[in-house]
Amino acid sequence: MKLYLSSYRLGDNPEKLAELFSDSKKIAVITNAMDFVDDLQREEKTKQSIMELKNLGLSPEEVDLRDYFGRQKELSRKLEHYSAVYVRGGNTFILRRAMAQSGFDKWIKNKNKNKNFVYAGYSAGICVLSPTLHGIELVDNPDVVPGKYNPKIIWEGLNIIDSILVPHYQSDHPESKMVEKEVQYYVKNKIPFKTLHDGEVIIKNK
Asked: What is the pTM assigned to this prediction?
C-alpha cells in the first residue's frame, strides 16, 4: 500500500499525492474523526477536503463510516470502487471507534497488501496507523463519544506503521503545546516515534 502521511491537510507539496495514482482517480474521503462537532461544521470540513482533492485532479466522494456500523460486508463492497482513501484529522479515538464499528480497520489491513492502493491522511488520519494510541490522550480526549458510538476506548492502533507519528510538532497549530507533552511521554516510556511539522509529509511508494 502506498502511504501519503501528512501532518496537516495535504502538506506543502500536494501534487506528490496525485503522482501516486495510476488509472483510477476515485478516492473515498473519511471524515469521521470530526463526528464530535455539529453537523454544519462537519459538512464544511468535509467540503474543504473534497475541494482540495478535486483541485489535484482526483475524484473524491465522502464515505461516512457511521452508515456502515455493523455492516462490514456492505462497507467492503462500497470501498472496492475506490483506488484510495483520504482520512482527515480530528479526534483519533473517535476515528478508531468508527473504523472498528464499521469493519474499516480489518478492510484496510487487507488493503495493506495491495501495492497500488493509496492511503492518504493527516493528523488523526495518520495517528491511527500506529501500533498504539497510548500517549495520544494527551492531545485528543478519548472520552468524547458521539451518538451511535461504542463508549469503549480502543487503545490499539491499526499497526500499519511500526512507530507513532506525532503531527503538529513545533508548528503554528492550537495543539502544538499539547504535542510537546505527548513527545515527552514517548521519550519517558521509550516508545518509538517520529515528529512531523505542519507542512511535512511522509510518502511511502512501494
From this structure: 0.96
pLDDT of residue 206: 64
C-alpha cell at 183: 513527545
35-90: pLDDT as tens digits:
999 999 999 999 999 999 999 999 999 999 999 999 999 999 999 999 999 999 99
User: What structural domains and CATH numbers belong to the chain?
Assistant: 2-204 (3.40.50.880)
